[in-house]
Amino acid sequence: MVRLIAFLVGLGFVVVAGWSLGNGVYAFATQPREESVEHQFHLQPEHASYSFDGPFGTYDRQQLQRGFQVYKEVCAACHGLSYVAFRNLEEIGYGEAEVKAIANQWQIEVPDIDPKTGEASTRKATPADHFPSPYPNEVAARAANNNALPPDLSLITKARHGGASYVHSLLLGYRDPATYRNKEGEPVPTEVRPGQGLHFNPYFANLNIAMPPPIQSDGQVTYADGTAATRDQMAKDVSAFLTWTAEPRLENRHRAGLATLIFLLFATVLSYLAYQNVWHSAKRKVRASGPLDPVNLAKSHEASREAGIQQ
Ligand code: HEC
């Protein structure tokens, strides 16, 4: 009896689950999906071309240094780079002394403790330190940014679809919601217009970002190498720099890939030659002793003829 009740209860669950699955599948198949307003106005990042694109791409050290300059002078006020150490800058072409000077003059000091009293304090950065966050903790970061948290930028190009192109588009993507029109020519509806402290940017997933436009005018940074600092150039350079912070070993990876391809090509040729070498004599031997070998065929014909067998 208990078994029967358990069976019926189980059956009841299966019927209900099956019913709701069937309903869901039917609705999915027959009803068109409703597009959200965000979706209608959201833009995919525009692809910008970089020296590190493709399987053989390499970093342009000059560009990375320019990008670092933009990070240092603009973004570092709000964003940390906690996975990158000052000494890593040697990989993008800075000398040891330059790195020391950069760390020493960094605008934000790194947290430390007083060696005598053990009290919390700060000190100047050294090349071994990682780039410090501009805020002591998340609460302070949110309090300074309209309750939004500026993310650490070390891995941001890996964390967003589109990578460097996304950051580039985002930095230049601020628009005036009053005059902006989407591809269908529609104006921005009031429900997705930015609230207080937010900024309209169609490249950002929910269209309203708490980051004020960081790259505002040409010449905001004066490049050490004399390159003209247009808004597009600055956005591109800092995006390239953030690709390097997220993937400093990209060039090794590309080189290893190329070496592997060459090796595989070489191994293919080698194995083909080995195959020919090994089977070449084996095939000859088979033919020489096999029944279809012309010599053997002639012999068998001869024997048949001698025995008076018609072929
Ligand atoms: C005034 C402070 C401030 C400055 C300066 C600033 N940002 Fe931001 N940034 C923010 C805040 C706040 C957010 C979080 C926005 C949100 O979640 O709405 C953010 C978010 C971002 C994001 C993530 C967007 C996403 O998809 O989640 C990126 C990328 C970014 N900033 C890049 C930069 C770069 C590059 C610079 C320098 C050129 C820079 N920011 C300068 C405050 C700042």
TrEMBL record:
Residues 62-246 form the Cytochrome c domain. The keyword Iron applies. Its cofactor is heme c. This is Cytochrome c1. Residues 291-311 are annotated as: Disordered. Binds 1 heme c group covalently per subunit. InterPro entries: Cyt_c-like_dom, Cyt_c-like_dom_sf, Cyt_c1.
